[in-house]
Each structure stands twice: as structure tokens, then as C-alpha cells.
Specification:
homodimer; alpha+beta; Deoxyribonuclease I, Chain A; six-stranded mixed β-sheet; 14 strands; DNA-binding; metal-binding (chains A, B)
Chain lengths: ~270, ~270
DNA sequence: GACCTAAAAG
DNA sequence: CTTTTAGGTC
């Protein structure tokens, strides 16, 4: 049994949009048994909290904190070590009139482990540029800035991860030439995310890897994965002290090769044990 | 490659309601490779003819004759040896005004192999006693009698098989005590089927096995298969010369034990090679 | 309980 | 393409 607060190996935090915990449970539990991950942040669980398979995670030595809804969205944090201060929704931090309707969809959960605050996000997809859902995405990102700014004031060590549904730079897309007005790459949403990062967050992946062609999501259609037509939209954004501390950030493409995979791959950031 | 008209082993004809050929294709092709079946009659294929996986059967040395529709019903005959005189629907034999609307649902296909005419049927379920669908089932069985009478005049060796959705006797049901007004066991549908058999057909299975508790269908619900709460509703009814010729008739329950099974098991009748 | 369709979401 | 829903069949 693993459960010590201090571990003989580096601490790992992972994010993975699993596109239905019901369908993907075997992949997720197998992956947790093959990798020494301390905290796994899941998006698109797609179940109400009562239907989340808590027991399957307890059986392999993990506890789960869930914040879900029927059919769509839903986030969860899976942890070997007990988590502190689990907070669900923007309204756990922000005033109700600031949040408005943005908590109707379950997309935000955060918790504290040791001296690190981990935020797990499922940013709205936005459908297409200029649509109502696009406006919702921009409003959501603006609210996220306020949310993270308050958290950062409380926790200098902030690890913000999840499915951001935004590829910040052209090198994060398989072919950016025709994507200027494409959802996940348009100027307004990139700017909205840059404003979020402006509070003092940096991309853990780009600390270690400058090359293009590194992706975390491939469309199910058109054999995109086989042809590596992907996007890097799943991220770990770190506050300065954590950015300095991070010793690796990698994308594990192996689960994307399995039968009936999620369309996303997990992204792992690693810290030394103090 | 097998393909000789004369075979060094007995000839086998099987019937199997596979409840979607799309979902069950792996079970069906595996079963054909594990069993020396000459003709396999399928019901509830649930695909239009253009979507039937012909190639998968050709790959294992079988040809398929299909008569399907979208979403519901649908029958097919799978054969190692080429089939002669394939006929689809009642209207291939009966006058259009006799058939009426009874060919709108694809439930009848027949073909000739050697000196035997094989008829493959998916009899309407009938929903509940007294319903509109029940009346349709009775009308359909009356039409079937005319259809088979004409075929029998042409082919003295008639093997009529399929999912009849009728358990003729109480020993064909796990507990008949409360089934007198149950669909598949009510007096009117049993009488309608008896009238069909009256043209000169006998139950191949009962030539060899008198015991109760022998079933071919178990409801997916209430763990019916595990508890053997089944019905014998899939049959081979044979004209006199074939009834004399038959050397076995068995139900293969093994496929019902697999993952994601059909709710029906195949039933096989065997004839000596002349 | 396991199939089917259809639409919505990604 | 894959997932979800709801309504229908058996």
C-alpha cells in the first residue's frame, strides 16, 4: 500500500480528458497501475456524482473527488494521498454575481496537496468562432482569470491543468496555416488565455520541449491520430516557484493507441521530492 | 477450402437469431469456424442489404443471401455450397393480394440445396396477447401456412426453421403455470402454428429429446440464462421424408455464454450424407 | 437488458 | 468517429 506523504520518488501530477469515465474506466485504472502518479485530474467524466465509479479507484489505492453532471462535462481529482481543501466550481472562490451562470456546467475543481494547489479545468470548447458557445468560452476564461488570481494570492505554488481547448501557438497545431479562424486557435481565445496566464503562469511543457508536432488531442475523425494531425490543448500552467521546481513535462501517447481510446492523451508534470 | 457438393460428413443445417449481425459478427464467424455447418439461417440481422458484411463470410468460405431492412427484422442464409432458387418474401410464392402488407417486414427467405428446400423464418413476436401486433402475428402465421403448402407441393423435402416466437408445448417453457395468456404461449398462437404444421411438418428436436428444460432463448433481463429461465422458440420443422432422415437435432448453448451474446442459441439439425 | 434510431456535442 | 440522450422493440 502506498500512502506516505513523503515518497521515495518524484511527485507526478497528470491531466487527462477521458471522454466518459464509464467507457474509459478500464484504461484509466490500468494506466494508474502502470504509472506512479500522485494526482490525476480527469475531464469529461460525463456522469453525475452518484454514478462515478469511486470503488474502482479505492480498489487500487486511490481516492476520488468528483464534480459532475449528466451527459456532459464533469471533472474529478484522483489521488493516492488525501487531498485538502477540495473546492468545486468558481463560486467556491468568487462571489455569486461574478460567477453568474458559469457554474451551471461542471468544469472546475481544485484541491491542495502539500504546499501545492492543483486546479483541474475543462474549458468550454466554443463550437465555432462567433457562435454563442464561443462567447460563453470567452466569458468563462475571463472569469477563470479572477478565480486563479484569488487562488494564487492564497497559494504561491499553483498548478493549473486540464483541457483548455486552446492551442496557444502555431507550433501546437499540426497545420496552423488555415486555423486563424478555427476554434481552439482564434486570436480572441488565445488572447483570453494569455490574459489568464498574465497573472503569473507558465507552460510547463515548453520549459522542456521547443519542437512543434507535440500533441495531446487528435480528432476521432479522418484517422487523425494515425496521421498525427493533432493539437496540444491539454496543459499544465505553473506559477513561478512551481515552474522552477518542475523537472519534466511529458505527453503519454500510449493510451491513445488502445482500442476505444479517449481522443486525448494524458499530460504529466513531475516535481522532485523535497 | 471446403466447397464440394458431396461431403465426407453429415450435412448440418442451423438456425440462429443473432439480434444484429453488426454486433454479433465475431460470434457468428467464430461459430462457423468451430462447427461444420453447411447452411446457417440467421434472423434479426437488422441491416439493409447493402450493410450486410458479405465479405466477412466470403473470407471464411461462405456465401450469404440476405433479405433485410433498417433497424428491425431481416433474415439471411449463409452457405458453404451455392444455394439454388433463393426466394425472398411471401410474394415470391403467393399472389400479391394474398400477401397484402405481410412482406413490408423482411421475415422470410428460402432456398434449395440438393434435394432439400430450406425455409428461414422470423415469425413476428406479437408484443402482448390481444394487441395489434398479436393480430399481425396470427395473420402472418395463416399466410405462412399457404406459403409452405405451396412449397411442400414443389419440394417433398422441406426443412422449415427459424425463430417462431412460439413455444408449442408447456415442456418448452421454464415455468408454464402462469403463461397461458403470455405471448409465445397463448392458445391462439399455438393453434395457428399447429395449423401450419398440419400440412405435414414435425418438430425435429422432439424426435430425439423428450425432456423439458431444453431452451433456445433466454431473456436478457433478470439473469434468465444463469437461472435457465428459458423458452424453446427456435425450431426445425421437417416434412415426413426429412423427419425420417434426420439423425440429430441439438441446441448449442455455448454462444449464449459469451460476452455480449445474442439472447438466442443456435439449433442444429443433421442429415446423413447419401 | 440489449439492441435500434436520431440528434446533439465534441 | 465517439459519446450521450430519449423513445421504441423484443
Amino acid at each position: 500500500m502506498l500512502g506516505d506523504a513523503t515518497l521515495p520518488y518524484p511527485m507526478q501530477v497528470a491531466t487527462w480528458n477521458i471522454n466518459s469515465i464509464r467507457t474509459r474506466l478500464p484504461h484509466v485504472t490500468q494506466w494508474l497501475q502502470d504509472h506512479v502518479v500522485d494526482v490525476l485530474c480527469l475531464q469529461e467524466t460525463k456522469v453525475i456524482d452518484g454514478d462515478f465509479p469511486l470503488q474502482a479507484f479505492e480498489d487500487i489505492g486511490y481516492q476520488a473527488h468528483v464534480y459532475g453532471q449528466k451527459a456532459y462535462n464533469g471533472v474529478a481529482m484522483i489521488s493516492r494521498v488525501p487531498l485538502q481543501r477540495v473546492r468545486k466550481g468558481f463560486a467556491a472562490i468568487l462571489a455569486a454575481d461574478r460567477v453568474g451562470d458559469l457554474d451551471a456546467q461542471k468544469r472546475v475543481i481544485s484541491a491542495v496537496i502539500g504546499d501545492i494547489c492543483i486546479v483541474n479545468l475543462y474549458v468550454p470548447n466554443g463550437a465555432s468562432v462567433g457562435s454563442q458557445k464561443y462567447d460563453y468560452k470567452l466569458r468563462w476564461l475571463h472569469c477563470l482569470r479572477d478565480y486563479l488570481q484569488q487562488l494564487l494570492a492564497e497559494y504561491p505554488n499553483l498548478n493549473v491543468c486540464g483541457d483548455f481547448n486552446v492551442a496557444l501557438e502555431d507550433r501546437d497545431i499540426y497545420d496552423a496555416s488555415d486555423k486563424a479562424n478555427h476554434i481552439m486557435a482564434s486570436a480572441a481565445e488565445r488572447q483570453a488565455l494569455q490574459t489568464v496566464l498574465g497573472i503569473g503562469l507558465q507552460d510547463a511543457f515548453r520549459k522542456f520541449t521547443a519542437e512543434p508536432g507535440q500533441f495531446s488531442w487528435w480528432d476521432y475523425r479522418a484517422a487523425s491520430f494515425r496521421r498525427n494531425l493533432g493539437w496540444r490543448i491539454d496543459h499544465h500552467y505553473l506559477s513561478d516557484p512551481l515552474y522552477e521546481r518542475a523537472i519534466s513535462c511529458t505527453i503519454d501517447v500510449e493510451p491513445r493507441k488502445l482500442e476505444k481510446p479517449s481522443d486525448h492523451a494524458p499530460v504529466i508534470v513531475e516535481y522532485p521530492t523535497p
